[in-house]
Design a protein that fits this description.
Elements: H1 2-6, H2 11-29, H3 35-55, H4 77-85
């Protein structure tokens, strides 16, 4: 069944896909891994898959990511520093395609 799933991939991608599936199956049986850990891993993989698809058109453009929490109050000192930093965070970064990078998003 798994072979049918990967048969249209090139050999290297087949190996990676089957190895990834094996890792997930091992995770299901690891005694030190809780149900919550498995749920977190599953959610992270779903989010990564989504992010890869969203950013695929920008693969050759350098990016800056700022991590934070949506629950951070807008008057929090760290929020204010990030808001001040964000608009200029990509200045001077040129994509590998030689074009000037552009800002995407709201800036905070």
């Amino acid at each position: 069944m798994l072979q049918r799933f990967v048969e249209n991939l090139d050999p290297t991608d087949q190996r990676i896909a089957l190895e990834s599936i094996g890792t997930l199956l091992q995770l299901a049986h690891d005694e030190g891994v809780s149900r919550l850990d498995r749920k977190i891993a599953n959610t992270a993989l779903k989010e990564m898959r989504h992010a890869f698809n969203v950013f695929a058109p920008f693969r050759d453009t350098r990016k800056v990511t700022i991590f934070g929490s949506a629950r951070t109050p807008k008057d929090d000192a760290e929020y204010l520093v990030a808001k001040e930093f964000a608009p200029d965070s990509g200045d001077g970064l040129d994509g590998r395609d030689g074009r000037r990078s552009r800002h995407h998003g709201s800036g905070a």
